Amino acid sequence: MASRLEEDLCCPVCQDIFKDPVLISCSHSFCKECLQSFWSVTSRRSCPVCRKVSAEDAPRCNLALKKFCDTFLKQKEFNETLSDWCVVQPAETCSLHDEKHELFCLDHQEPACLVCRDSERHSQHRFMPVGEAARQHRKDLQETLESLKKQLGLKKEVQEDICQVMEHMGFQARRTETQIKEQFKKLHQFLAEEEEARLAAVKEEEEQRRDPMREKLRALFRQMKTISDTVRCRSMPAETPHLFQMQV
């Protein structure tokens, strides 16, 4: 059964310990390969957990989480090896001397029998009873795990703080965007009204200037008509005798 710490260090997609974990904009982490595989079959770069669309095309490597996972895997492997030594090996005999493993060599980090202790291979090595070594290693492992849990808790608090800051930044950005749109909408409306008013003023001014010119044109037409009529009337007596002479 997986521990709570191991569950926290599992990728939500593959349900295994993170491998090359990456962090996306919604603050969820995934194995790099798992996220790429998920995105390759979806039309959007959405989060496999919360379905929010990621704002980043290239997710950042979560170095802190990667270090935690590497340390946890090493400790887990060591713990499993130690359990094998403490549980299985004492019931077995030394393959070299056919004696039970009653000691643990601190220099070679392996179980040994009483004959191994006196052999040349373990000359001047340090030994302790295998049960005592198991308890010591369990204690060291527990302290390491507790330290990792504390560090993970602190990292989670920092992550939550960062998420809150990012959420607040997003809220501020959306509010600012809305304010800018409203201001520009009002500005566009003002400019449209100002344009309409100025065009109307120009047209009115044009009409005001045209009225006197039209009146002058009408007066000029009247004068020209009067002159034309006068010229025509005065020209007729001079032309009539000439016509009579042509008839004779």
TrEMBL record:
Pfam families named among the record's database cross-references: zf-B_box (PF00643), zf-RING_UBOX (PF13445)
SUPFAM superfamilies, sorted: B-box zinc-binding domain, RING/U-box
Occurrences of domain RING-type (ranges): 11-51
Protein name: RING-type domain-containing protein
Keyword terms, alphabetized: Coiled coil, Metal-binding, Zinc, Zinc-finger
InterPro entries: TRIM/RBCC, Znf-RING_euk, Znf_B-box, Znf_RING, Znf_RING/FYVE/PHD, Znf_RING_CS
PROSITE patterns registered for this protein in UniProt: ZF_BBOX, ZF_RING_1, ZF_RING_2
Protein's UniProt keywords contain Zinc: yes
Organism expressing this protein natively: Poecilia latipinna
Keyword Transmembrane helix found: no
Coiled-coil regions listed: 131-158
Sequence ranges assigned to domain B box-type in this UniProt record: 89-130
GO MF, one example: zinc ion binding
Recorded superkingdom: Eukaryota
Classification via SMART domains: BBOX, RING
PANTHER family registered for this protein in UniProt: E3 UBIQUITIN-PROTEIN LIGASE TRIM (PTHR24103)
